[in-house]
Amino acid sequence: MHISMKCSVAIHCLIFIFEYGEQTKVSSELLSRSTGVNPVTIRNTLGALKKAGILSIRQGTAGTRLRCPPSEIDLFRVCTALEPDFLSNLFGIHGSPAEACPIGYRIHDILDSTYGKIKQDLCLSLKRITLEQIIQDYHRRLSEKAREEETSTAAPS
After folding, report:
1. What are the respective helix, strand and coil percentages of the chain, to the nearest 5?
2. The predicted structure's pLDDT at residue 92
3. Separation CA 64–CA 150 (nearest Å)
4. Is the pLDDT assigned to residue 3 strictly greater than 80?
């Protein structure tokens, strides 16, 4: 299974905007430096998130802001904003099975049903994970890192 890199870049951008959007103007150039992704790709990503109602983008000094609370932004919403057909493109089914074969004749129906269950489970899982949870994980990891650094600098040589 494959969810494109666009989703991870978008989540990176959303965390950055949440963390720093009130203190500084968050531009595509700034996000490009943070993500290591081309500014044009960032602008396309931000445009898709804006179209989905996740972001508010203002030219000039206003910059980019979240349009709704992180608790209302789930991974399914982000993925479908960037790639509306990502669920249908998750699995490929070979196109020319032998119709004279009892398996080949039915394989598309069988796999459509099986893959449909997996897609449904994936959809539900993505909807359960919110940007708020991801930000909380980010803060937890920052705290752990800070504690590790304090411990390593406080330890006698």
Report:
1. 65, 5, 30
2. 82
3. 34
4. no
Angle between helices 28-35 and 39-51 (to 10 degrees): 110
Closest to 126 measured CA to CA, from 87, 84, 70, 74: 74
What six digits make up the tokens of 1?
């299974």
Question: Per-residue pLDDT tens for 72-81?
Answer: 999 999 999 9
CA dist 55 and 71 (Å) reads 14
Which residue in 77, 75, 69, 87 sits closest to 2, CA to CA? Answer: 87
pLDDT for the residue 49:
98
Residue 24 has pLDDT above 60, yes or no: yes
What are the residues facing 56 on neighbouring strands?
65
Which tokens hold the place of 90? 């998750």
